[in-house]
Design goal:
about 25% strand, about 35% helix, binds magnesium ion, OB fold (Dihydrolipoamide Acetyltransferase, E2P), 4 domains, 10-stranded mixed β-sheet, 16 helices, Elongation Factor Tu (Ef-tu), domain 3, binds adenosine-5'-triphosphate, about 575 residues, Rossmann fold, 6-stranded antiparallel β-barrel, alpha+beta
C-alpha cells in the first residue's frame, strides 16, 4: 500500500505536498484525484516539491498525492520504433485513440503494446554465463531494425530455460541464476531512469562522419558519429528544416527526434510527413528506424523539461544494441525555458537572464551522453546529438547558446542575412566550424575521394578570399579589380550558388551522396583551372559567363545520382569552351 500525502500548495506546474512517506528525489508521484503524473524535484523537511507533467488547472489543495517509489523511467522493449511519444513517453497516437485530440489528463497508456506477441530468437545458449548488457536474443522489431534483447544492467549469471517462441514483452523469456543461486526472470521489457546515463565500457575517439547528404555539412562542417553539434539561429533561419533533413537523410541506424516546445504546426509537419517517407536505400518506411518525441509549446512545461532526457535514454538503449543513433532536439532553448520556469516557481536564486545557475551543468550533462562508445556487451555504438538553439534576436551571447557552444564540437551558424537572401541552408561558412575535421580527414580520403581534403581546403580558401576581396570592392569598386580576383569572385559565387545552396524541397537536391559531392567539388575545381588558364591568355571574366560549362555546373545539383557519371563526362567535355574564347584584352 503506497503512502499518501496531501497537496499543500500549487503554483503552475509545481505542487508542494505534505506527508508523503519516505519521498526520494526523482520519485514519480500521482497527484490528485486525476492522478496526474509528477516527479519529486526537491525535498524540504516534510515538504515534497513536485513538478507535474500535466496541466494542473482544477487541482485543489488537500487532494491526495501518491508515491510510486519509481523514478521517471522509460519503458524499454520492442515496439518503441515508429512510436510518437510525448515528453514522458506516453504514446500520442494511442492517447489520441482513447481520448481524442486533446490529451486527457491522468491517462495511463503504456509506451509499448504489452499484448502484442513478438517472435523471439535466442542468441545466447542455455547454461552459458552472461553478464549485464549481453545480448540474449533478437526480435525483428521493424522491417529495418533487429531489436537485441539484453541482460538488464546489474544482472549477471547463468541462462536458464531460454527458448525460441512468440512472446509478449512481459512474458518470461528465460531465467538468470546468479552466483549465489538467486533466480531472476527476464522478459523483453526493462525500465531505465531517464536522468541517469546508461553505463558503457569506454568512450572512443570519433573517426567516422555522420553522412547527412547536406553538402555544406558533409563537406565543410561535418559532425562525427558520436559527436555533438549546435545549430543556433534566429527566427526563421532554417533550424527546423536542417533538423528535419538530418532526421530524414543522415546515415544513422536509428533516429530520435525530440520536438521540444516548438509551435504545434512544426510538429504537425513532422507527424504528417515522416510516416510517409521512405528510406532511400531500402525503400522501407523511415518510421521503421525513427522515434518521435513531440512536446509542442502548448503542452505542459515540465514534460518539455523531461523530453530531452526521455529522448536520450531511448537513444542510449538502442546504442547499447550496437547501433548508431542520431538524436535531434529542436529547440533546446525551449527546454531551457522550461527549466527556467520551474526554477522560478521553486524560488531558486536566478543566474544569468533568469536561468538557473545550474543551466550550464545540465546542458553539459546532456551532451555528455553522446559519444562513440564500447557498450557493455563489447559492441560499438554511438549517439550523435544535434541541438537547435533559438537565441532571442539571434544574439548568441545569451546563456543557452553560450553554454551549448562550450560543450558541442560543431557549430553551424545560421545567418539571418543569408536566409533573407534565400541562401539555404543558411549556414554561414565563415563563422561555422567543426572540430572533428582532423579526426575525419582519414575517413574522407579513404571513402569519399583521395583529393577530398585538399579540394575542401581549396574551396574554403576561395570563400575566405572572396570575403577579403569584397572588402576591397567596397573601397575601389568591382571594375577596378584585376581579372584574377574577379575570377576568384566568380568561382566563389559558383561554390555558394551551385554547391552550398541546397533546396530541402527539391526531390534530387535534397540529398547528395559523398560520391556526387566529390564530383561536384572536382568540377568546380576544374572550372577554376580552366578559367585561370583563359585569363592567362587575356580572356575576361565577363566573357566566360555564357559558356555551356557554367550552365552545366549550375544544373549539376539537380542531376540524379544515377546519371551523375555521364553528366560529369559531358561537363568535362564542355570545359574546352574556355579554350575557344578569344582574348578580349585589347
Ligand atoms: N534547406 C532549405 N531549402 C529550402 N528552404 C529552406 C531551407 N531551409 C529553410 N528554408 C526556408 O526557411 C523557412 C524557415 O525555416 P525553419 O522553419 O527551419 O526556421 P527556424 O529557424 O526553425 O524558425 P523558428 O525560429 O521559427 O523555429 C522554411 O519554411 C523554408 O521556407
Ligand atoms: Mg523551428
Amino acid at each position: 500500500m503506497a503512502e499518501k500525502g496531501n497537496i499543500y500548495r500549487i503554483s503552475g506546474p509545481v505542487v508542494i505536498a505534505h506527508g508523503l512517506e519516505s519521498p526520494k528525489m526523482y520519485d514519480v508521484v500521482k497527484v490528485g484525484k486525476m492522478q496526474l503524473v509528477g516527479e519529486i524535484i526537491k525535498i524540504n523537511g516534510d515538504d515534497a516539491v513536485i513538478q507535474v507533467y500535466e496541466d494542473t488547472s482544477g487541482l485543489k489543495p488537500g487532494e491526495t498525492v501518491e508515491n510510486t517509489h519509481r523514478q521517471l523511467s522509460v519503458m524499454l522493449a520492442p515496439g518503441i520504433l515508429g512510436s510518437i511519444y510525448d515528453g514522458i513517453q506516453r504514446p500520442l497516437d494511442k492517447i489520441k485513440a482513447s481520448s481524442g485530440d486533446f490529451i486527457a489528463r491522468g491517462v495511463n497508456v503504456e509506451a509499448v503494446d504489452t499484448k502484442k506477441k513478438w517472435h523471439f530468437v535466442p542468441v545466447a545458449k542455455n547454461g552459458s554465463e552472461v553478464k549485464q548488457g549481453d545480448i540474449i536474443g533478437e526480435v525483428q522489431e521493424t522491417g529495418l531494425i533487429k531489436h537485441k534483447v539484453m541482460v538488464p544492467v546489474g544482472m549477471n549469471g547463468k541462462i536458464d530455460k531460454l527458448k525460441e517462441g512468440d512472446y509478449t514483452v512481459t512474458d518470461k523469456i528465460c531465467g538468470i541464476i546468479g552466483s549465489t543461486g538467486s533466480k531472476s526472470d527476464v522478459s523483453m521489457l526493462q525500465y531505465w531512469p531517464v536522468r541517469i546515463a546508461r553505463p558503457v565500457v569506454e568512450k572512443l575517439p570519433p573517426h567516422i562522419p555522420l553522412i547527412t547528404g547536406q553538402r555544406v555539412i558533409d563537406t565543410f562542417f561535418p559532425v562525427a558519429q558520436g559527436g555533438t553539434a549546435a545549430v543556433p539561429g534566429p527566427f526563421g533561419s532554417g533550424k527546423t528544416v536542417i533538423q528535419h533533413q538530418l532526421a530524414k537523410w543522415s546515415e544513422s541506424d536509428i533516429v530520435v527526434y525530440v520536438g521540444c516546445g516548438e509551435r504545434g504546426n512544426e510538429m504537425t509537419e513532422i507527424l504528417t510527413t515522416f510516416p510517409e517517407l521512405k528510406d532511400p536505400k531500402t525503400g522501407k518506411p523511415l518510421m521503421d528506424r525513427t522515434i518521435l518525441i513531440a512536446n509542442t509549446s502548448n503542452m505542459p512545461v515540465a514534460a518539455r523539461e523531461a523530453s530531452i532526457y526521455t529522448g536520450i535514454a531511448l537513444a542510449e538503449y538502442y546504442r547499447d544494441m550496437g547501433y548508431n543513433v542520431a538524436l535531434m532536439a529542436d529547440s533546446t532553448s525551449r527546454w531551457a525555458e522550461a527549466l527556467r520556469e520551474i526554477s522560478g516557481r521553486l524560488e531558486e536564486m536566478p543566474g544569468e537572464e533568469g536561468y538557473p545557475a545550474y543551466l550550464g551543468r545540465k546542458v553539459a550533462e546532456f551532451y555528455e551522453r553522446a559519444g562513440m562508445v564500447k557498450v557493455l556487451n563489447g559492441k560499438i555504438g554511438s549517439i550523435t546529438a544535434i541541438g537547435a538553439v533559438s537565441p532571442p534576436g539571434g544574439d548568441i551571447s545569451e546563456p543557452v547558446s553560450q553554454n551549448t557552444l562550450r560543450v558541442t564540437r560543431v557549430f553551424w551558424a545560421l545567418d539571418a542575412s543569408l536566409a533573407n537572401r534565400r541562401h539555404f541552408p543558411s549556414i554561414n561558412w565563415l563563422n561555422s566550424y567543426s572540430l572533428y575535421m582532423d579526426d575525419l580527414g582519414g575517413w574522407y580520403s579513404e571513402n569519399a575521394g583521395k583529393e577530398w581534403v585538399q579540394l575542401r581546403t581549396e574551396m574554403m580558401g576561395i570563400l575566405q578570399k572572396e570575403a577579403e576581396i569584397n572588402e576591397v570592392v567596397q573601397l575601389v569598386g568591382y571594375d577596378a579589380l584585376p581579372e584574377k580576383e574577379k575570377e576568384t569572385l566568380d568561382i566563389a559565387k559558383s561554390i555558394r550558388e551551385d554547391y552550398l545552396q541546397q533546396s530541402a524541397f527539391d526531390d534530387v537536391d535534397t540529398y547528395t551522396s559523398t560520391k556526387k559531392q566529390y564530383i561536384m567539388l572536382k568540377s568546380i575545381k576544374m572550372m577554376h583551372d580552366a578559367e585561370a588558364k583563359a585569363i592567362d591568355r587575356g580572356v575576361l571574366v565577363e566573357q566566360m559567363q555564357k559558356t555551356t560549362a557554367k550552365e552545366k555546373m549550375a544544373r549539376m545539383k539537380f542531376v540524379k545520382e544515377a546519371d551523375i557519371d555521364n553528366y560529369f563526362k559531358e561537363f568535362e567535355g564542355s570545359l574546352s569552351d574556355f579554350e575557344s574564347i578569344e582574348s578580349g584584352n585589347k
